[in-house]
Design a protein that fits this description.
It is a single chain. The protein is mainly α. It is built from one helix and no strands.
Amino acid sequence: MRDTMLDTGIEGINQEMVERWQDLWDRFVLELAYDVKSLSKKLESDGYSLIEASPYE
């Protein structure tokens, strides 16, 4: 059976490494999505606080 990674420049990459990197990537994406939502809510809240504190309501 021919190694599918031959002649790609990534011959040292194995399935275990790919799975590990995929797990890391998936976790990164989930945490990033959480951070974006959390930051968005905070910015919205801060924005409303600034508007409410403004003398020009």
